[in-house]
Write a structure and sequence with these properties.
With 370 residues, the protein is α/β, with parallel strands linked by helices. The protein has two domains: 2-71; 99-366, Spore Coat Polysaccharide Biosynthesis Protein SpsA, Chain A (Alpha-Beta Complex), CATH 3.90.550.10. The chain is 34% helix and 18% strand. The protein contains nine helices and 13 strands. It has helices at residues 2-39, 58-71, 113-122, 143-155, 189-207, 229-236, 266-272, 322-326, 341-351; strands at residues 44-45, 54-55, 99-106, 130-136, 166-171, 212-218, 222-224, 240-247, 262-263, 293-294, 308-309, 317-321, 356-366. Strands 3, 4, 5, 6, 7, 8, 11, 12 and 13 form a nine-stranded mixed β-sheet that branches. A two-stranded antiparallel sheet has the order 1-2. The chain crosses the membrane at residues 21-39. GO terms for molecular function: alpha-1,6-mannosyltransferase activity. Keywords: Membrane, Transmembrane, Transmembrane helix. Pfam families: Anp1.
Length: 370
């Protein structure tokens, strides 16, 4: 009996020892694997038919695994994983293949569309990286039908490199009508600009996609700008940047158009201290002088890319890093620091810590339409 029990005890003891050793080895291996995924500075690249991006953490790998697994369920939903950490807007945007979203609100704009599309199509920025989106409001002319025709042309060209990434046409009526000869009347500006702000916000929230690095706000009636303007403005590498928009004249004389690009001065800041908080300040009107320094009055001979800080901007041609909008800077239809719409956007962006700049020497032209 003793001889038969003894070997059994030895075997049992050895088995228990092996189990303990196995558990310790497995625990050690698990710790090493987890440490590699979690703390490794070098990203783990997973490439395959269903994966064309870089996984940087274990949690991302798990998320991707869950997303990939869901694709295999015929009747199930599909998770969409988008890593916004790698989305950037850089000074070398063209080389980095960064997408640009061009946004243009419209109302009865049929007479301007031919030149608008002609200028966009001249841009040297790659067409496949450009999305164009419109919001048409309270329109009675053929704006929508012309847009559809142009979109079909631009999206279905034979040469792939000449096709645009996307063209979107949205329609939203605000039931706001203003006679053409009254659209710049001083007393009506706060109300008019408030509706314009709402239009811009609708367009922005409808059209902005996760892959857009830049947003360009472009007036439909800008009639002259350089083919390289996107690359030029991107090279300045600031959050918000505007060129100097002048009025197109037959004799080429210098007349400022976009007076919403400006700097505050000591006098303008002091004056605002006594204003009612809901009072909207407007530029270019003799009814109320703001004492601000307009960019159209700044020297233009210091170089095309010489930048100056601004406190207000218009939107004839305003290039914005998409991050600025994503983090919450939009176009207030309400009074924000005595401004609404585009100038309110500039004030909001600066309050959030973003940089707003203008290029006095970089000239573009706007048609005289009122």
């Amino acid at each position: 009996m003793i001889l038969t029990e003894k070997p059994s005890n030895i075997y049992t003891s050895s088995l228990r020892g092996n189990k303990r050793l196995s558990v310790l080895v497995l625990a050690l291996l698990s710790f090493i694997v987890l440490s590699f995924f979690t703390f490794s500075k070098s990203p783990l690249s997973l490439r395959g038919p269903s994966c064309g991006r870089t996984i940087r953490t274990l949690s991302e790998a798990v998320a991707l695994s869950s997303s990939t697994t869901s694709r295999n369920h015929q009747n199930g939903g599909q998770a969409k994983f988008i890593n916004l950490n790698d989305l950037e807007a850089t000074a070398n945007a063209k080389h980095e293949q960064e997408h640009v979203l061009i946004l243009t609100p419209l109302k009865n704009a049929e007479v301007y569309l031919a030149r608008y599309f002609e200028l966009i199509d001249r841009l040297s920025y790659p067409k496949h990286l450009i999305t164009v989106a419109f919001l048409v409001s309270d329109t009675t002319d053929q704006t929508v039908s012309i847009l559809k025709q142009k979109a079909d042309e631009f999206l279905n060209r034979q040469e792939l490199e000449h096709r645009y990434h996307e063209i979107a046409i949205y329609e939203k009526d605000f039931n706001f009508q203003l006679p053409e000869d009254k659209r710049h009347t001083f007393e009506l500006q706060p109300l008019r600009r408030s509706f314009m702000a709402r239009s811009r916000n609708y367009l922005l929230t409808a059209a902005l996609r996760e892959y857009h690095s830049w947003v360009l706000w472009l007036d439909v009636d800008v009639v002259d700008y350089s083919e390289s303007i996107l690359e030029d403005l991107q090279s300045v590498d600031v959050d918000v940047v505007v060129p100097n928009c002048l009025l197109k004249t037959e004799d080429g004389s210098f007349w400022g158009y976009d007076k919403n690009n400006w700097q505050e001065t000591d006098r303008s800041i002091e004056m605002q201290k006594s204003l009612d908080p809901d009072y909207v300040l407007l530029e270019g009107y003799y009814e109320f002088l703001t004492n601000r320094y307009l960019m159209v009055d700044m020297p233009t001979h210091l170089g095309k890319l010489e930048k100056v800080p601004l406190d207000g901007v218009g939107a004839t041609f305003t290039l914005v890093k998409a991050q600025v909008h994503r983090e919450g800077a939009n176009f207030p239809p309400y009074v924000f620091q005595h401004q609404v719409e585009t100038e309110g956007f500039a004030k909001m962006a600066k309050a959030m810590g973003f940089g707003v700049y203008g290029l006095p020497g970089y000239i573009i032209h706007h048609i005289k339409n009122s």
